[in-house]
Amino acid sequence: MSFWSSQTLRSRLPSLIEPFSDDQIESASYQLCLGEEVYISPLPDTPLKERKKIPLSEKETVPIPPGQFAFLITSEQIEVPKNAIAFISIKFKFKSKGLINVSGLHVDPGYRGKLIFAVYNAGPLHLHIGRGDRVFSIWYADLDQDDEKPRQKIGYDLIPPDLMNGPDLVSSLPYLKTRLDDLEKKVEEYSIRQAILFGIATPILLVFVKIIVDIFMQPLLNMIKSSLTIY
């Protein structure tokens, strides 16, 4: 296996990547841009009507909240020949801010279509990305011959609904923080109620104790005291 050099990319990619731009070749890789839509995972209590893809106009940005997942699609249609394989990654500029690629790291021989990246914002801040930003890198490498089982399934053109129909991300950091805040609030409210109840109940309880002592215990104590009196 040998990786394609910048020169090879320049000669071969115009027929494999659409749209192609020569200035997006960098260090034996091609820089892919964010496309026209993204999908950011909702919290479990998000209404269904709000669980939808976010369309992006040219140069429009969108924030990925800390602790949330997202699907990002490339603006370019790419093709991998049957005698090659491609490897993909997120550029360090975005990795250094906490964006992690949690999807695959390669593209099958024979694939045609846009690429979808599943990402996770592991950073502490909202990460803003914009349509047209060079977010991804792709490298091509030769196989020793045409692969006998190349990718046959049609590639992506848009982010498909089945990716958005997955289970709610109940373990995401914002959701866990929300649950922790709710739990702390309930504990605080319970403590306040207990303090109020104790403050009210204690004087009442003391009154009942005094009554019991006066009715039952005091006569008994008087009898004991009388029996011990020495004449």
Automatic annotation (TrEMBL):
The keyword Transmembrane applies. InterPro entries: dCTP_deaminase, dUTPase-like_sf, dUTPase_trimeric. The keyword Transport does not apply. It comes from the Bacteria. Keywords: Hydrolase, Membrane, Nucleotide metabolism, Transmembrane, Transmembrane helix. The chain crosses the membrane at residues 195-217. Pfam families: DCD (PF22769). This is Deoxycytidine triphosphate deaminase. It comes from Nodularia harveyana UHCC-0300.
